Known about the structure:
Blueprint: H1 2-10, H2 12-24, H3 32-50, E1 55-57, E2 65-70, E3 76-82, E4 95-97, E5 100-102, H4 106-125, E6 133-139, H5 150-157, E7 162-165, E8 175-179, E9 181-190, E10 194-195, H6 206-218, E11 228-236, E12 242-243, E13 246-255, H7 258-269, E14 279-288, H8 295-311, E15 317-320, H9 326-331, E16 336-337, E17 344-345, E18 353-354, H10 359-368
Parallel strand pairs: 3-6, 3-7, 7-16, 8-15
Antiparallel strand pairs: 1-2, 2-6, 4-5, 5-18, 9-13, 9-14, 10-12, 11-13, 17-18
Helix pairs in contact: 1-4, 1-10, 2-4, 4-10, 8-10
Keywords: Cobalt, Hydrolase, Metal-binding
Organism: Citrobacter portucalensis
Amino acid sequence: MKSVVNYLQKHTxxxxxxxxxxxxxxxxxxxxxxxxxxxxxxxxxxxxxxxIQAETEKQTHYGNQLKFVLxxxxxxxxxxxxxxxxxxxxxxxxxxxxxxxxxxxxLDMKAGMIQSIWAVRALKESGQLGGKRIVFLxxxxxxxxxxxxxxxxxxNATGSEQVLVVEPATTHGDLKIARKGTGRYRIAITGxxxxxxxxxxxxxSAIEEMAFQILKLxxxxxxxxxxxxxxxxxxxxxxxxxxxxxxxLEIDTRVENQSEAARIxxxxxxxxxxxxxxxxxxxxxxxxxxxxxxxxxEQLFEKAQKIAEILGITITAKSAGGGSDGNFTAALGIxxxxxxxxxxxxxxxxxxxxxxxxxxxRTALVAGMMxxxxxxxxxx
Length: 380
């Protein structure tokens, strides 16, 4: 590990330069042109630092997905990272204040992607890749639930020896060994319009029906099991003096295991109208399976802990309420470890930032996960 750390310390300025270039290429998930431009910047960094070109999976509505492969044979390590962000262009700017670097998507998760590139470069330059096959899967729609990249990720990650997810660490720098599964549902409610003053009894209020459905959905929450059902968006009605004939609501679900996912899905899809004359149309389902804690993921974490000790840091394993693309690979039974990216705070918040002083250590941690012998030291 000594040679890796020394190499990264000598190239810290270039690592930060690459992070800056990628963050400046703003990439809101819903802006295909912007995301594809960011992808072009990422492709240039891969070619410059690792000498490899992208295999592009073109998309019509979302940004193109990018796959980078180093090595043709040997056990495969898959590195997952997304280059889309939740930020519209111009909302945040790249800046440095009091030793912290701020910017759109800098923590979630552009810094982590650059760290993974340099982790592999450090191994390559020090002659420690040793017949390994490294596959980077860089997708453009993770913040939307990976609608166009889910199957692509599963197809390309299948058969991997391990999957390393360079999503940001927790606020305290810990890794993520489990994540909740996520679901998205939409319920469209149809009622019957009527004049609110002259003949309200002839109408059927879709908004009133919606209120009953929200209360039913609330009953599905089970904090002891880690299950949450949140009605996050509601819409309805046309005029204040009209009995509403239409309403809709959007629901987010979070579960810790597959049995809870099945229970929640069954309960939501079996909802029935409360008011006579109203109708429900229910759409949606599970968008990401739970990333459940497993012996395989625990073994990966134990290796990460040993690497951390060598690097002089302490890490623990945490569970996260949010999902990532690592949920897909963990559900396949592939050993998956998440949270290997940058440290900082403010994910999806205006104060999103990274801590540059941890860049070398966190990059070395990723590199160590690809070594067969983490105690090896070539004396460099």
